[in-house]
From TrEMBL:
Entry protein name: PORR domain-containing protein
Domain of life according to the entry: Eukaryota
A GO molecular function held by the record: RNA binding
Cited Pfam families: PORR
Organism field: Gossypium darwinii (Darwin's cotton)
Chain segments annotated as coiled-coil in the UniProt record: none
Residue stretches making up the PORR domain: 42-300, 301-359
Length: 371
């Protein structure tokens, strides 16, 4: 499932300091023995644009949900401020006016108060959301199980899941429709006065990362002997079971020293993200590489978190943008320009609904947000 999200997984995730700007500074060591120097890496304008493209579709979809939650599927304009606040109200009013193909405004004559509702065409497409959610249920259950398997003690504070439930693709009644529906997988437990979502059974078949699944599909796994014969390319990509796909910004020009160090790092083995983090020493380079693998796996499920220190160091894998209300982390390989490569049924439904406005390719995923 490709979607964005805010949660902290115990100590599986290393907290780190926020960035003062979106220009990432790293030190490159020259091959001539000179003093190291700073190099500024510029923005990825395609991924920045993704955030801009989300703004209006987000408002359209949010207004759709508000209307559908009302009696008789219509929202009195006088109640809009109660739903979204005084400031946001004007943004939604603008959306209603700009997209009459989606939203119909009526009333205002005589005793009938002004209201907004979905147009007939929009209602027809909106009915397809139920089918999309049915298709998503087994994917959501699988992703939620994998999420808990990534965390220490296989549990996550329930309040954190509730906070980002919508961004994870969970239905608003997920505790009833998913948690209680699958008691063989999930349970809720109160520990030290705090409610937790708990994993009931470990499934070793799920303890495989999306990265490993991709390698298996593409038959890229090689023997140890074969790995040593492959030379790293000029963009830092290496075909091996412990390597990550690198997608640098256009302005980045790695030198020979950088690529040599990257090749060593790409070949380095590391423990599975699904193994208990308590088993490893934090200072071990293999453990630090495992943190990258954990983040890579989390972004596959749009899980937001506090910014992790290694995000800035591994900017060929992750990209951080200041666009939007919160800073956002992208998994670079998940995007082709501004387009998300692989979309789940809910995101495809969102695209179809928003396309009524004349916009295409609007939904995003594989990002995480943090305050």
């Amino acid at each position: 499932m490709k979607r964005r999200s805010i949660i902290t997984l115990s100590s599986s995730i290393i907290r780190c300091q926020k960035l003062d700007s979106m220009f990432v500074s790293v030190r490159q060591i020259s091959s001539g023995g000179k003093r190291s120097k700073k190099k500024i890496y510029h923005r990825d304008y395609q991924l920045d644009k993704v955030m801009d493209l989300q703004k209006k579709p987000y408002l359209i979809l949010q207004l759709k949900c508000i209307i559908q939650s009302q009696n008789h599927q219509r929202l009195l304009l006088r109640d809009l401020e109660k739903e979204v606040g005084f400031v946001e109200k004007w943004n939604f009013m603008s959306i209603m006016e700009k997209y009459p193909s989606i939203f119909g405004v009526g009333g205002g004559c005589g005793k009938e108060l002004p209201f907004v509702t979905l147009t007939g065409k929009a209602e027809k497409i909106a009915r397809e959301q139920g089918e999309a959610r049915n298709l998503m249920e087994p994917i959501l259950v699988k992703n939620l199980r994998k999420l808990l398997m990534l965390s220490i003690d296989c549990r996550v504070p329930l309040e954190k899941v509730e906070l980002i439930g919508n961004e994870l693709g969970l239905p608003h009644d997920f505790k009833k429709s998913l948690i209680f529906k699958y008691p063989e997988y999930f349970s809720t437990k109160v520990i030290n006065g705090r409610a937790y979502l708990n994993l009931e059974n470990w499934d070793s078949l799920l303890a495989v990362t999306a990265r490993e699944e991709r390698f298996a599909r593409e038959r890229m796994l090689q023997s140890a002997g074969g790995q040593n014969k492959v030379r790293i390319t000029k963009d830092g990509n290496y075909l091996g079971p412990f390597a990550f796909k690198m997608c640098y910004a256009a302005g980045f020009r790695p030198n020979k020293s950088y690529l040599e160090e990257l090749e060593k790092w790409q070949k380095m083995e590391f423990p599975s993200p699904y193994l208990n983090a308590r088993r490893f020493e934090v200072a071990d380079p293999k453990t630090r590489k495992r943190v990258v693998a954990v983040l890579h796996e989390l972004l596959k499920y749009r899980l937001p978190s506090k910014l992790v220190l290694c995000l800035t160091k591994h900017h060929g894998i992750f990209y951080i943008t200041n666009k939007g209300a919160r800073r956002t982390v992208f998994l670079r390989e998940a995007y082709d320009g501004t387009n998300l490569v692989d979309k789940c049924s809910i995101l495809m439904f969102n695209d179809k609904f928003v396309a009524l406005s004349g916009r295409n390719e609007t939904s995003s995923g594989n990002v995480m947000k943090y305050t």
